[in-house]
Amino acid sequence: MFYREAGNFKTTYADDMALFPLPLTRYAAMALLILFALIVPLGLHEYYLSIFNLIFIATVGALGLNILVGWTGQISIGHAAFMSVGAYTAANLATRLDLPFWITLPAGGLMAAVIGAIVGIPSLRIKGTYLAIATLASQLIIEWIINHTPAISGGASASIEVARPTLFGYEIKSQRDLYFFTLFFAVLAIVATMNLVRSRVGRAFIAIRDQDIAAEIIGINIFRYKLTAFAISSFYAGVCGVLYTYYFGIANYEAFQIVVSIDYLAMVIIGGLGTVLGSVLGAAFVTALPVVIRLVVEAFGGYIWDPAALSAIAASMRLVIFGGLIIFFLVVEPEGLARLWRNVRNYFRTWPFSY
Amino acid sequence: MTFRKSLRTGAVALTGLLGLATLAQAQDKEIVIGAQCDRTGPTQIVGTVLCPAYHHYMNLVNKRGGIEGYKIKLIEIDHEYKVPPAIEAHERFKKEGAIMTSAFGTPQLIALLKKYEEDKMPVTSPGIGSSAATDGKAYPFVFPIAATYWSQAGGALKFVKDTMGGSLKDKKIAYIFFDNPAGREPIPMLEELSKKEGFQMRTFGVPSPGLEMAAQVLDITSRFRADFVIAHLFGRAPAVAIKAFKAKSYPLSKVVGLTWAGAEADIIAAGGFGVSEGYHTIQYAGVGSDFKVIKDILAMLKEAGQTPGKEFESTVTFNRGVYQGAVHAAAIANAIKAKNGAKPTGDDLRKGFESVSALDPTLDGLAPPLKLTPEDHEGGGWVQVWSIKGGKFVKTADWFQCYRDDVLAHVAEENKKK
Question: pTM of the prediction?
Fold first, then answer.
């Protein structure tokens, strides 16, 4: 009833190729955009915006990893290392050459893309868990190189402070300013990915994921597309790293260690492999759920436990509940949160006349 | 209802809902402190002791009647040693009206350095670092409040020098460290001192997670044949190091560990006090429970009918939590006095910190004779040496400052680069 497809006739090629072909999805997308671009930033306290900021930055990184893992079927445990490549590239450019963010940001992405493509070379020969180990090695190698090269890391403490980004002389500083900054790049990344995966390149990625030998037989250059996938994925990671750098005001490789790679892998798996929505939901789930759990435990835990010991309990409860919810969602729907949403949507497609 | 109107009602409803969900805001006669902690992540060995100790001390302060009529409200957030949750925690503290915070973990501190300054919120980072933050002019809102890694390294070297008869000329000193920024921080300092004192120094990095160091230890004991070893290790690495030196029959009385390599938990993990006989540790707070403040805390718990938790077993880390709390309390007292009883802001509290010189007298020997000034946010860089003798920690050297001029010169040089 709500999600009606009947009666939507496409009369032009442009209509047929639209990102949101149905009026309802178009309106929904517009409504979401208004919600996140106007209502949320103007209506909420800065504290909540800081959580949104973290989600938006994570979304960019998760989309990048999803392109590689979800669409191309190549696993990577080195995603955080590519973020650090982007972060240090941007930080060095910003401090040494005094470049503005709209140059350092793509530069960080491009540098990460180059390194990512090099790291992707083993993927031509090895697959699955073997590739996982190769990318794991790249994570450690990149970490080590940054850590031991003062020219990159900026000295013994391996951190480079960068100034806040400025746009036409306005310093993007408060959480609210940064909200618009990160939102812009998150939306850009979402739209770019939606378009990428239905292009020639995206279809080649999917063909490689589904059956690489078959893909090769129908004329897809596996060498080129696998490296492209690594490069694009790392570009997103690099941009994500640059966003973190501007958000923290400092580039520090300790924010991009292997645990972070695992976190991002968790985001795309929980959210749903090979879906844009999944990356967004996964990023939100992993970033915000621990916070929500803590707020709930703090608000209601006092009735169950001793209030004095609550902070210790909240920390442990957060881990227990968070772990439990991951298992719950993956058991309910192994294909992730995006699939769960699609199931709901499909139900309402014919509701209330489903027979 | 027009579209714009519905938009507005929607926004109002949304904010209202979220407003309901938030907890009670700060009250008038209450000072809110935000404390970051890691009770569940890789450094929980410290967090599960230090944070409860800090809570106990603040409860004691409240029980004694608060500070100048103000009660302390402590909000603790566990960040699992991850950076994004630490950012969220900081924003939460701000929202709850916190006027100061206590940091936990070097990466988290570094990621928030800019925020602390923008938000004018003083932060303390005892033993966590940024040695460069000793200079209060360069980092007005960061207070290391205890000997930084540079001062610790200087202290260790002074101790080595005294142990070896007052001269380091042509001696061989090995520096074994956890290969991360915090572990490497003392190296430039030690290199400078090696030129000055004329000893030979070599560094041995242990890669993360620091559970395998047989090769480095073999190198130190058999090839380099070090006369003394300075160990700067974290987490589970100190225990592994003690075992490795023991396995090579290297006398532990020639090993001195910096602050995070010398808690009871490390010694127990290495096989107990018997095994670790002779091992030296650098401390920035006193060791043991023989202090009035600890007895007061135990009495307070007894009165409330609570049994003391596991945290009391690790006195090294526990006392650091108490020490941190005492410095905070002293700073808050200073800030309130300076404002004649009015509620201080973050900036007032910064001035409060910068005039801390005397702490809660019940701490007696637990705290160093620190003196914070607008220039010196470290408070002098005092350390003690505690060694394991006869199955327990014994004080080998009382509070001393060491190579202070060299440390300060190094700080100045580091901040010039900034």
Answer: 0.88
Using a CB-CB cut-off of 8 Å, the residues of chain A touching B113 are 161, 249-250
Per the CB < 8 Å rule, is A255 touching B83?
Answer: yes
Q: Do A43 and B14 touch (CB under 8 A)?
A: yes
ipTM of the predicted structure?
0.86
Q: Which residue of B has its CA nearest to A54?
A: B84
Assigned CATH for B149-283+382-417: 3.40.50.2300
Q: Are B135 and B415 in contact (CB under 8 A)?
A: yes
**What are the extents of the domains in chain B?**
26-147+285-380, 149-283+382-417
Domain extent listing, chain A: 46-350
- Residue A339, chain B, CB below 8 Å: the answer is no
Give the three-class secondary structure for A189. Answer: helix
What is the CATH number that goes with domain A46-350?
Answer: 1.10.3470
pLDDT per residue as tens digits for the range A198-237: 999 999 999 999 998 999 999 999 999 999 999 999 999 9
> Which CATH architecture is the domain B26-147+285-380 placed in?
3-Layer(aba) Sandwich (3.40)
* B256 CB neighbour count, 10 Å cutoff: 27
Instruction: Answer left, alpha or beta for residue B69, where phi above 0 means left and psi between -120 and 50 means alpha.
Output: left
User: pLDDT per residue over B276-315, tens digit each?
Assistant: 999 999 999 989 888 999 999 999 999 988 888 888 888 9
Residues 191-250 in A contacting B (C-alpha not used; CB under 8 Å): 247-250
Q: How far is A50 from chain B (nearest CA, A)?
A: 6
Query: How far is residue A166's CA from residue A145's CA, in Å, rounded to a whole number?
Result: 30
Task: Tell me how crowded residue B274 is: count the other CB atoms within 10 A of its CB.
Answer: 10
